[in-house]
Amino acid sequence: xxxxxxxxxxxxxLAVACVSLGSILVRLAQAPPxxxxxxRIFLASLLLAPFALAAGVAAWPSLGRKRGLAxxxxxxxxxxxxATWIASLSYTSVAASVLLxxxxxxxxxxxxxxxxxxPASARLLAAMGIAIAGACLIAGGDARLGPDPVxxxxLAxxxxxxxxxxxxxxRGLREALPLGAYLLGVxxxxxxxxxxxxxxxxxxxxxxxxxxxxxxxxxxxVPTLLGHGLVNRSLRVLPAPVVGLFLLGEPIxxxxxxxxLFSEIPSAWTLTxxxxxxxxxxxxxxxxxx
Length: 290
What we know:
This protein is mostly helical. It has 14 helices and no strands. The protein has one domain (18-287).
């Protein structure tokens, strides 16, 4: 690897390390899932605002009604993604949760096929079949992991679907807005969505101890602002399939950290199913619809 290529891959490697910490910090926060979800995206929005607010205000009038509604829809989908995926970590293992939520690229292509009428190939259909088989193995092997692993696995899958909906709905908005303004608009909408859900569910958003607030601040800063920020930076200098393949390291990193910190040992079923899911994702990010 040449020094120039190393300089391009180093930020992406750091991004994988950052996002791998997400599930660990969720566990350490020890707060209701809706509160964790709200603070993760709300604090990240506050940290981003000084750098993106002016650009967002300047670009908003030219966005148009249709794109404005798309931005709101993408933010709502992202908020639901965080709510369901973070909730899944209360019921199932870190390995199962992170592996299942990382099926989002497969669902993104499926939604693009069904909603946007973009053509699907035999590669996509094969990846879908492999991923579904892997998910079934993970769910089947989770019987002794967590208080309600089936519920946790379902929530993680809902998190994957809503994350892919966020990607599909928001398609084209990155070109219509500066990157920081786009992220601020979507993250702010997601925070408002989660705040409304917490209010309806009577989940308090105050009164948490300093240790929990420190974990929530870390969640906003490391996996959200730094991790996702570095991913978006990498997408400007590296092909999307390369970035996608690197991000397949998140389930591995998160599972390794869960083993060290929480003594969570993935079952043979989870490891086998996870291997199938990773193989399906590799098919998707390497070839897309081709």
